[in-house]
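DATA SHEET
Item: assembly model
Revision: 1
Owner: S.N.
Input lines:
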Amino acid sequence: MDLLELTIKDASEKLKKGVFSCSELIKECFTTIKKNDKKINAFLTLNEEEALKKAIERDEMIKSDKEIFNKKPLLGIPVAIKDLYTTKGIKTTAGSKIIKDYSPPFNATVVKKLIDAGVIIIGKTNQDAWGHGSSGENTDYEPTKNPYDLSRVPGGSSSGSGAAVAYGAALVGTGTDTGSSVRLPAGYCNLVGLKPTYGRVSRYGVIAMASSFDTIGHMTKTVYDNAKVLEVTAGLDPYDSTTFPIKVGQYTKVLGQNIKGLKIGLPKEYFVRGLDNKINNSIKDSLKVLEKFGAIVKEVSLPHTNYAMAAYYILVPSEVSSNLSRYDGVRYGGTREMFGAEAKRRIMLGSYTLSSGYYDAYYLKAAKVRTLIKQDFEKAFKEIDILIGPTSPTSPFKLGEKVDDPLQMYLSDIFLCPVNLAGIPGLSVPSGFVDELPVGMQIIGPQFSEELLYKVAYLFEQETQYYKIRPKFKNG
Amino acid sequence: MAKKNLTTEEILHIAKLGNLTLNKKEIEVFKKQLSSVIEYIDKLQEVDIKDIEPSSQITGLTDVLREDKVEESRTLTSGEALANTKSKEGNLFKVKAILTE
Amino acid sequence: MDKKYQVIIGMEVHAELKTHSKMFCGCKNDPFHAEKPNIYTCPACLGLPGALPVANKKAIEWTVMLGLALGCKINKFSKFDRKHYFYPDLPKGYQISQYDLPFCYDGKVKTSFGPVGITRVHLEEDTGKLIHQKVDGRNVSLIDFNRSSVPLIEIVTEPEIYSSAQAKEYAKKLRQIIRYLDISDCDMEKGGMRLEANISLQKKGETELPNYKVELKNINSFRFLERGIEYEIKRQKEILEAGKTPDQETRGYNSEKNITYTQRSKENAADYRYFPDPDLPPIRFDDKWFGEIKSSVPEPLDSVFNRWEKDYKIDKKLTELLFETAGESKKFDKVFSGLSDQKLPVDKFVNAIVNKKLSVDIFGEKVEEIINTYKKSVQVDDVTDEDLKKIITKIIKLNPKAVEDLKVGKTQSINFLVGQVMCEAKKKIEFNRLVKLIQELIK
């Protein structure tokens, strides 16, 4: 088997037919990890012993129950879990040193759902500590590298999950997306990455970054795989008051349906200065592909885009400073001086924007601007069905390029954060290469439009097949 | 846009609010970095937000409540509750004495 | 009170609600009876990474109920906010509370000194419990999170209390109302109800509030409240007389020494950085839900006392002693109207209960049983002398020995004969009346 090319769909079929066993698949994952992870740093914790044990159990299930794949839709599928996800008995560090030995007594709702669906947890992945970052370099451990070019960042904050799926260590990588953290690594690692509608997937047990922004997504090689995983993770959770009592879509069932007459909006504010010319051209080429399927492309305006980042960098640190208050070293973890520089920056910034005398000018004002940004999208969606733009204004940048300038780092998420401010879904799909580096295209839709996003992405993917271009570990 | 220069005093104040202690080098680095971020976010001040309601949440959900029922399945044993602490005494968490008379 | 100064007091009272489960998780809410520390915790109330709160509906309804009982207006749209401060008993580093939209505001509690305005009633979560002790010779603080996230209501008054006695009366009255609603045990000794008073002195004749206030915290009895305030009046007066202004600070009360002492001074004045809790969607009381809560509010306590005074001529001082909860008062209502229907004296019944002359289990027995027991205990003289004489004649015939004894002066045998007559009559008959009749017939 070639893990670099294997998808969930292939793996399920081959497990079903007995082409390979689950044990063989999982062993192969660890062989790959042992061969490559020293170069990539995708994992913080490996779950090898337990995973191999589970694989044997899965093989027994396959032998004894013909219906097992209907009951457990992700049976035997190797999963890399971002270290923000609480995993019972498996060390959960959030990429930080302060809780480097924390062993949770419970599973996040999504982890439980994935386990119930039959997955096998390969390990916990590297990330910007607490989700604070766009490059993976804010990890308190060794930064993850981009498998397509080892001198470059894989995108963050779900850097390890992105890299792990890209180099074949797992077939799906879970992530969290507060501002960009699933879509950016997906874009930089040539993967399909979903930021679901806020409230579509439970946050319970996923360590909070900014509670009103955090969404629980995942990265896969293909659109089908991505849709398949969402069918498992989505849904109402009584432990998360912000999940919706709305029926989960049949995301894989809509794939292949046509998009004739679909109205695509191009936010003119996304195609301006700062956008790399080659990326601009690449996205414009991609739009031509969708036009061939009968979609109609028109320009729209999201007038408050220019203020999105400022609102984001008030509201998110405010919530971050609050959410990181619980790390006091009493019940778990170490003391607060163990926070890394970025966590300290955000705690301080958020303490400032919430503090007496500044609340109205910062937090409250930003919360109002958030309303305007949400309204921008609502107005746009009255005219068009989806919005399309580049996932990132640039190609994956060099490690170290932006670490000393937090503001420049923050601005790399400029096309992604507005989506989190509005709570709507965004899907990044591979849309080609510029100078041998992946380019991602972001498809944005209204609340709960995941089916539509997948439908569009699937046609595009089947036509272009960019996902088949696998990494070569350049500059290693 | 006004140039922002946080003073050492301001940096120390907000660090204290966040229960952080900073060394000298951190004070200088954060002073510069946070000043530039605050300068950037200050651009919000030019937006007209008259009559706009704030969005602290974006779901529009209300009244998501639980019935008053004891749920034992999620309750941790005291062993589980204390498993990750570095400092305990019997079944209790232990910290340095907190001053009271 | 002093001729020169007027004390101005505002109070903040906390009470733990006695819901089955905690405020934001399903853990058992029973910190005072837990066998061991840290056995009623879960990821949410222990503040583990990733855990989320879900609000307890009953606790919200009870808070609104209390607000209505205190004559408050209700915010039909409300929310929970995070209040930030660092303390080892506060697991999340913030307390989920309510800031600018408390469930209830603008109410009133009557006291004999005048009404006390209620500024607000809001709902929050309690903290863990700190235990200060020596371990291996070193002073440490130990933490038990069984109490963490237990629902806690806070009732804040206007600065409209003008004496320690009024403060005490207000606090007692508030406890009575809360217990009447049966939403909290208000156990002050265990910390289930905690009193705080903001105290300052105003020069007589001035209209503006003083420019300082001293917060007297964590008082666990009405007596200590009264004494602590008295101590503060004396202390603050001395400072003012010396031409200074008392520090704005938080003070504790030491009941052994009967003094107050500095706990936290104003330099450390907290900046709580409140903001709406993003994990908890806001609360909107629609007409249906609000109607349900409103209809669950019992008849006001004062109205119960007044009604009984009017209908049954019973003093409030006595009826106050009869019951605590509205459920209990309703039982009394049933008993009273039953007695009344049978033309039995309710006031005498109440006297018998208060003086423990009647052994009945009011809240356990049925109304008819209670009334029958009472009737038996008081029913006399409803047989005629003629009927009694017939019975006595029969008893005399059956007990010649006792009659003989009586004739020769063994007076105690009269008791036996009276008992036999009562037995035969199956009634309680006045003792002296029977003695008289028996002696008449023996002669």
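QC remark: The mean pLDDT of chain B is 94.
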